[in-house]
Amino acid sequence: MEGPFIRIEDSGAVIPLRPDVTTVGRGKGVDIRLEDPSVSRLHAELVRRGPYVYVVDMGLSRNGTRVNGRPIARRVLEDGDVISFGSARGRLGGIPREEVDPEVELRRAVAPELTRREIDVLTALCRPALSDAAFVAPATAKDIATELVVTEAAVKQHLLRLYQKFRVPEGINRRTRLANEVIAMGLVRPLPTVTVPPQAQRTMPLPPEPRRPGIAARTPVTRRAS
């Protein structure tokens, strides 16, 4: 079989990964459906980026996702890695090592383990840079705090740990360098754009006009029939 695939341990089924994202879970709409009560309806995603693959735990299951027995939130994979989705297991294959140049191999080797909260911070940090607008700076600590409904001090503590994990040295544009590193690794990706149908836009109520100070709102006057 050409290209990356996963072999499910219980059934022995060999399933090729999609070119972009392969969803894994117990629900009816996923790409790889696992009939195991420990697997959530949407449990994880297997994401392909160039010659390598990483797994993302969706955070919807108490049992989580593990790689080679180690709990993960997001992890770049190698050929032969065993991925556990709850109690269900599969082995990844079809990732040729010769197609990954030394620079990418080194970057993959140092990709840090991230907590779910750190992934939230990185996603909020990189969201402006993943938009369609050009030359957009990453989000500030205040912007991230507002989006995640936490204090700005807590966000700064997370950023300090992330700088250390991604080995971003002190200096100017530190947030930008962190965002560039994270995007280059493929650890975050843009969310799908939500579009509102034209019919729904027409039925949306208009906001009330602001009242001027000192002027009472007019009430409609009805005339009595003579």
UniProtKB/TrEMBL annotation:
PANTHER family in the cross-refs: NUCLEAR INHIBITOR OF PROTEIN PHOSPHATASE-1
Keyword terms, alphabetized: Phosphoprotein
Domain of life according to the entry: Bacteria
Name this polypeptide is given: FHA domain-containing protein
Chain ranges passing through the membrane: none
Ranges for region Disordered: 198-226
All residue ranges annotated as the FHA domain in the record: 22-72
Regions annotated as coiled coil: none
